[in-house]
Amino acid sequence: MSRVGKKPIAIPEKIKVSYSNRVVTVQGEKGVLERSIHPALDLKVEQGLISILMNTDDRKTRALQGLTRSLVNNMVTGVSKGFERVLEINGIGYRAEAKKNDIVFNLGYSHPINFNLPEGISVSIDKNNVITLTGIDKEKLGHVASAIRRLKPPEPYKGKGIKYANEHIRRKAGKTGTK
Fold for domain 83-164? Predict the structure, then answer.
């Protein structure tokens, strides 16, 4: 059995978890999340704990048990605390500006880039170059942060571009002139 999958998930107060028709629904003060559960697994919700049970014991099902436990745990954490992802923009003249449900980027191209945020993700921008994304769905938040980073990935010579706040860019030495 999966070590991660065997651990039960504690349900905090003020969080409601329901499971019916292979769909788990988690409600909290920040919102509601739903996810369908694979047919090889089953959920048991009782006494403030969620347990993931396997219907068969094979290698794939054991892997799915650990994955499902992590996904359900992220749902519980998301509706209670929420998630946050911070990106930094490095480069002279590179900046971002929030307008309603869009972010307008100036990244050294000949035109500004409008990035439309999906529903459930909110943004705050500090000093025109620190972007803080928040949301309750960790998976969606990661996809949005990755899509923003892909607009102008950091380059290794000067470090210009969009990077995660905790990311380290390995720098390269530039060309040296020979005589």
Answer: Outer Surface Protein A; domain 3 (3.90.930)
